[in-house]
Design brief:
Layout (H helix, E strand, L loop, with lengths): L1 E10 L2 E11 L1 H37 L4 H32 L8 E4 H13 L7 E5 L5 E4 L1 H17 L7 E8 L2 E8 L22 H6 L5 H11 L3 E7 L3 E9 L7
Parallel strand pairs: 4-6
Antiparallel strand pairs: 1-2, 3-5, 6-7, 7-9, 8-9
The chain binds adenosine-5'-diphosphate.
């Protein structure tokens, strides 16, 4: 995008020429476009839960409802409030990461107990899934921010559970390749259509079909995962077959501390 400015130059009463200034404003236009898109996405995402909270509370105020109906509406208000708070937290997290304002504390830690702990945590949930950890090595020391890495794997395991039928098996495979390690999380759930693959890590992107609409989510989890992986000089990839399952693979540099 080019902005132009022109002015005729007269000197001694005579036309002497034209001053022409061309300015490349591509960057400004792009920043404006992204800002507008963000504002409209956020207002849409906030408006949906807010309007259902408004609707349910209005019904409760205006009508004399039996206790069981009141409880049902309150439960809906509660879950929409939870969704809003999750959305705002995730969104602020992501903003900080993208603006490079997120502080990371790098330290060496063992990934295996962390993954085992996440498995334990998810095994306690109501629709327990069979989560298997397969690792070639007993200890896997990496250099990183353990809280953020936990958030990254927590998100991926959570998705594997969310998008698979109750009780479906999930495998977490840890492997070492030269100076990098990979963690692959495989589920046998609903999978991802090929047409969605290129947009999957975009902010707010959710595959739109009857399954995912029922499951719910903010569409921010994978963007957060990608930011965390990048901050660790790592990468995240996905392979999937719709209707069969997905594998999300995180690749991180192995950086063991020097021996004592
Ligand atoms: P959400 O909060 O919607 O789960 P994510 O950013 O974590 O947001 O994921 C984006 C979208 O990618 C999801 O809405 C879903 O459509 C798809 N997705 C993510 N993980 C999986 C998975 N393991 N199996 C199938 N689809 C998935």
């Amino acid at each position: 995008f080019i902005k132009t400015y022109s002015e005729e130059i007269h000197y001694g009463g005579k036309f002497r020429g034209i001053l022409l200034v061309l300015r490349d404003v591509t960057n400004e236009v792009e920043v404006d476009r992204i800002k507008n898109e963000l504002v409209s996405t956020i207002s849409h995402e906030l408006r949906t839960p807010l309007s259902s909270i408004y609707g349910f509370t209005e019904l409760m105020i205006q009508r004399d409802l039996p206790a069981n109906r009141q409880k049902k509406y309150l439960a809906a208000v509660h879950s929409e409030t939870e969704r809003l708070s999750l959305l705002i937290n995730d969104f602020l997290d992501l903003q900080r990461m993208e603006a490079n304002h997120q502080e990371y504390t790098f330290e060496p830690f063992d990934l295996i107990p962390m993954i085992k702990d996440l498995k334990q945590l998810h095994s306690l949930s109501s629709s327990a899934h069979d989560i298997q950890i397969l690792s070639d090595v007993p200890v896997q020391i990496i250099q990183g921010d353990s809280k953020k890495i936990r958030q990254l794997f927590g998100n991926l395991i959570n998705n594997a559970i969310k998008y698979s039928p109750a009780g479906g098996p999930i495998e977490i495979r840890l492997e070492e390749h030269h100076d990098r390690m990979t963690v692959a999380i495989t589920d046998h759930g609903i999978g991802i259509p090929a047409s969605a693959m290129s947009e999957l890590f975009q902010k707010f992107y959710r595959v739109d079909n009857s399954d995912t609409r029922k499951i719910g989510g903010t569409g921010l989890g994978l963007s957060i995962c990608r930011e965390i992986a990048r901050a660790h000089d790592g990468e995240i990839h996905v392979e999937s077959i719709e209707g069969q399952g997905s594998t999300f693979t995180v690749e991180l540099p192995l950086n063991p501390p020097p021996p004592l």
